[in-house]
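Entry 14. Structure prediction run on the chain below.
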Amino acid sequence: MSHVENELMSQPECWARAAEEAAEHASVLPAAGERVALVGCGTSWFMGQAAAALRERTGQGETDAFAASEFPHGRTYDRVIALTRSGTTTEVLDLLGRLKGRTRTVAVTADPRTPVVHAADDVVVLDYADERSVVQTRFATTALTLLRARLGLHTDAVVADARTALAEPLPEGLVDCTQFTFLGRGWSVGLANEAGLKMREACLAWTESYPAMEYRHGPISVTTAGTATWMLGDAPEGLARQVRGTGALWVEGRLDPLAELVRVQRLAVAVAAARGLDPDEPRHLTRSVVLDSP
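Output returned:
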């Protein structure tokens, strides 16, 4: 069994622990009314997108999400949260350095022995969710669970759905598809983006991701037999019928969207196995992107 497969299987336990710890980190996580930005790279950026949408939906305050390299330095925030599993990513460390002394920063990381611990003003360590695989699964979803629980949006039902996502077989014919499209609404748009990334990283699949209502504004034109279109969350009225009309496989999101992402992680491993790929060794990728100094 691959590292990524082992790690994704442990997510229900990681989520339950993060939810229990959320209150302990209340002093460093955003308070209601603060203007907040979440930053990260790759998977962490997409988790930031989801967390930002959840925070705004609950009326906690204006919240944005940016790739760390694209942070708008002309804007003012009360707090910036950096999501970084490795704690060594160049763009994240550079950003935290520029914000030092100007904006309160919080790093959510898996490794307390890395430079980010000194670069940020406050640190939340989720070392029990660290990973050996290059491909992120449990750290990302555990970090999002922590933020979700702090907003009062996590319940035991989410963990139960994750267990279901791990136990139920994947839809018949899904592994044989040649194109995968992931759709979301609201906070699950970030999860759809992450689902697409996971498939590209782990099994070199042709994947796309969109807000669900945007899918009919062009992207559906490439949908056909051999396409799987997967909805994370509740689908807009009539969309399932339209997708089925193209000959594609429609995958309904019946579980909590974060648990649906767990199903996608399982799919990525299954497709990698079918294609003879090692999901722990994605092509051209490393655990952390550390750039050479100019």
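The first strand starts at residue 36 and ends at 40.
Filed with the rest of this week's runs.
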